[in-house]
Design brief:
Largest sheet: none
Radius of gyration: 17 Å
Mean pLDDT: 95
Structural class: mainly alpha
Helix content: over 70%
Distance between the termini: 57 Å
CATH superfamily: Phosphotransferase system, lactose/cellobiose-type IIA subunit
CATH topology: Methane Monooxygenase Hydroxylase, Chain G, domain 1
Number of helices: 3
CATH class: Mainly Alpha
Keywords: Magnesium, Metal-binding, Phosphotransferase system, Sugar transport, Transferase, Transport
EC number: 2.7.1.-
Enzyme class: transferase
Oligomer: single chain
Strand content: under 5%
Number of domains: 1
Number of strands: 0
CATH architecture: Up-down Bundle
Pfam families: PTS_IIA
Cofactor: Mg(2+)
Length: 107
């Protein structure tokens, strides 16, 4: 496996971890476990940071003139990362709404 392929696979793996932890956080907040949800969101953000840093390293290489092959796997990684960012952002908003709903239900 080339260094480029390893970087691409890392983007896919960590973007997946980002989404997984975000959905776990949503499940926990639905159960009223806010501390657990916050921990999962932190893990989601950590995974996203790694994936984003790998993507940024490829962008820097290309900006410096290094040719980056645009393979189907690379496109998949970019798509996976973009989806992870979008889903995580939406889940964070849903979690905030769920906290409000939980407070209203428990009154």
């Amino acid at each position: 496996m080339t260094e480029l392929e390893k970087t691409i696979m890392n983007i896919i793996i960590y973007a997946g971890d980002c989404k997984n932890h975000a959905y776990m956080a949503l499940g926990l907040v639905n159960e009223g476990d806010y501390a657990g949800a916050d921990q999962e969101l932190e893990k989601s953000n950590d995974a996203l940071e790694i994936a984003h840093n790998d993507q940024t390293s490829l962008l820097h290489k290309e900006a410096k003139g290094e040719k980056i092959d645009t393979t189907l796997l690379f496109i998949h990684a970019q798509d996976h990362l973009m989806t992870a960012i979008t889903e995580r952002n939406l889940i964070e908003q849903i979690i905030e709404l769920r906290k409000v709903v939980n407070t209203l239900i428990n009154k």
